[in-house]
């Protein structure tokens, strides 16, 4: 589903964020990506969504060669992904409902169908009661759930999360992880970047560890 | 097709919501465009009306031959005979000095003055309708008739129409220049409005790009906004002109009754009005398109 071959990423200031990274994630897998901060986790996730381009190497996502994508086709790659951003990127000028609606609007869904889908996604993360609320009134955990709902409402085949449990207490983090597991169980490929040790103790899932831009396990 | 339509419908809805969200500033910028456009539009409308008037008159040139005061009835008959043979004359009619005095008495409201005259000061005259000819030919006809010994004065009554025609041509050129300048102004106004909108919607644009919005999806509401702003501006200019014309026509009633002519200012024709709306919509769209091209690429997600 996702594969990296000899991927290097060097920034214009000379900093090498990724060095010769290679791995493969199969469809339906749940994989953790870990490493100290600055190890290149976020860069790796950005390469998958073509937010950044690799300096060299090959990246394949859902059988699409990301390197070769033209600028005009990048939106269609991103539509096959559900992304939970580290800085959340919630829009505070509209309701919770409208935030989750955005991915469907972009795809040109009809209003009736998309409203039903938005409610289903909000229900899945336990936010249905707050659909008319402004996101500013939500707690930290609720905001994270809102991000998850927005990432899954269009039923992507790949779910990518950057530090989804940062700044959440343990119970909340566990319940959010439960949500991710439930997506993996219905066949979604899930990649979670985290340095949350309690999550990583969960040995059921594979862990990719980055150290100064190199993949060490 | 259905999806495409629904996307456009959504973009249109978004645009109208955006306009309604800031009603005062939306109205203000629409009126700015409207007032700016009403200037060339008003001149254009007026010129169109004057042109209809002058074209009507100028195409049927009229020549008045005033005879000498001492002209006899045999002189009149001679001229009558000459005019019948003269080429390029559509029709002519003799107005005797008595009839001319009567007309002056009845039509000009100068009855008292005329009554007090001891002697009829008016000459006998021929009013000649000439077939449409070039100004030069008209001049040579006038010169020929002037030389006739019985004729005191030959006057082309349509000189003023030709002068008006020349003025109109000048006016049309001025309108064209004004319209070009203000068209640019419209593009600039929309360009700037869209720039501000893009800045305030920075977050939304960034998130949309990150979750797979195409450039055309992001552009669409801004383009609609520009087109609607341009069209609404033109519509308000049209309304301003309509009100102006109504006011002028009301005061024209008095004037036209005095001069017993039938002249009212008409508004733009349906075709002209539609072209105005469409053209301004296109200008607005163009301003938005330029603005979006300039500013949207600066917002790349990181």
UniProtKB/TrEMBL annotation, chain A:
One cellular-component annotation, GO: plasma membrane
One family name in Pfam for this protein: ABC_tran
Keyword Membrane: yes
Signal peptide per UniProt: none
Membrane topology: Peripheral membrane protein
Domain ABC transporter, residue spans: 2-216
Subunit structure: Homodimer. Forms a membrane-associated complex with FtsX.
PANTHER family hit by this protein: CELL DIVISION ATP-BINDING PROTEIN FTSE, IMPORT ATP-BINDING PROTEIN
Its biological purpose: Part of the ABC transporter FtsEX involved in cellular division. Important for assembly or stability of the septal ring.
NCBIfam families from the UniProt entry: FtsE
Record protein name field: Cell division ATP-binding protein FtsE
């Amino acid at each position: 589903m996702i594969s990296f071959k000899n991927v290097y990423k060097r920034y214009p200031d000379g900093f090498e964020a990724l060095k010769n990274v290679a791995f493969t994630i199969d469809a339906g897998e749940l994989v953790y990506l870990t490493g100290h901060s600055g190890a290149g986790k976020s860069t790796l996730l950005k390469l998958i969504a073509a937010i950044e381009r690799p300096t060299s190497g090959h990246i394949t996502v859902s059988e699409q060669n990301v390197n070769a994508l033209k600028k005009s086709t990048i939106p269609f790659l991103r539509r096959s992904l559900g992304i939970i951003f580290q800085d959340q990127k919630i829009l505070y000028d509209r309701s919770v409902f409208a935030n989750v609606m955005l991915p469907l609007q972009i795809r040109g869904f009809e209003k009736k169908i998309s409203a039903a889908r938005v409610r289903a996604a909000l229900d899945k993360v336990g936010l249905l009661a707050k659909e008319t609320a402004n996101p500013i009134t939500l707690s930290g955990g609720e905001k994270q759930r809102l991000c998850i709902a927005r990432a899954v409402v269009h039923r992507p085949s790949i779910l990518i999360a950057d530090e989804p449990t940062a700044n959440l207490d343990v119970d909340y983090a566990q319940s959010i992880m439960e949500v991710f597991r439930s997506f993996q169980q219905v066949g979604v490929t899930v990649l979670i970047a985290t340095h949350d040790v309690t999550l990583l103790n969960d040995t059921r899932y594979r862990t990719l560890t980055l150290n100064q831009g190199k993949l060490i396990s | 097709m259905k999806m495409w339509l629904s996307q456009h419908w959504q973009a249109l809805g978004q645009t109208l919501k955006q306009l309604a969200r800031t009603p005062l500033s939306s109205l203000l910028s629409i009126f700015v465009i409207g007032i700016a456009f009403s200037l060339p539009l008003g001149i254009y409308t007026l010129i169109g009306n004057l042109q209809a008037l002058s074209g009507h008159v100028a195409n049927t040139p009229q020549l008045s031959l005033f005879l000498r005061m001492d002209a006899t009835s045999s002189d009149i008959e001679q001229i009558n005979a000459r005019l019948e043979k003269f080429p390029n004359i559509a029709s002519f009619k003799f107005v005797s000095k008595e009839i001319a005095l009567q007309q002056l008495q009845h039509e000009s409201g100068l009855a008292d003055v005329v009554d007090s005259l001891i002697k009829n000061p008016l000459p006998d005259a021929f009013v000649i309708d000439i077939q449409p000819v070039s100004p030069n030919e008209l001049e040579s006809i006038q010169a020929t008739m002037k030389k006739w010994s019985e004729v005191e004065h030959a006057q082309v009554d349509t000189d003023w129409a030709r002068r008006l025609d020349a003025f109109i041509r000048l006016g049309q050129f001025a309108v064209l220049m004004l319209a070009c300048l203000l068209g640019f102004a419209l593009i600039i106004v929309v360009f700037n409005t869209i720039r501000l909108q893009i800045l305030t919607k920075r977050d939304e644009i960034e998130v949309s790009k990150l979750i797979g919005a195409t450039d055309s999806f992001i552009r669409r509401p801004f383009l609609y906004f520009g087109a609607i702003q341009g069209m609404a501006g033109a519509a308000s200019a049209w309304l301003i002109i309509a009100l102006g014309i109504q006011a002028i026509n009301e005061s024209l009633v008095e004037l036209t009754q005095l001069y017993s002519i039938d002249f009212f200012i008409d508004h733009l024709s349906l075709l002209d009005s539609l072209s105005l709306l469409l053209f301004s919509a296109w200008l607005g769209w163009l301003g938005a398109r330029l603005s979006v091209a300039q500013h949207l690429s600066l917002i790349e997600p990181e």
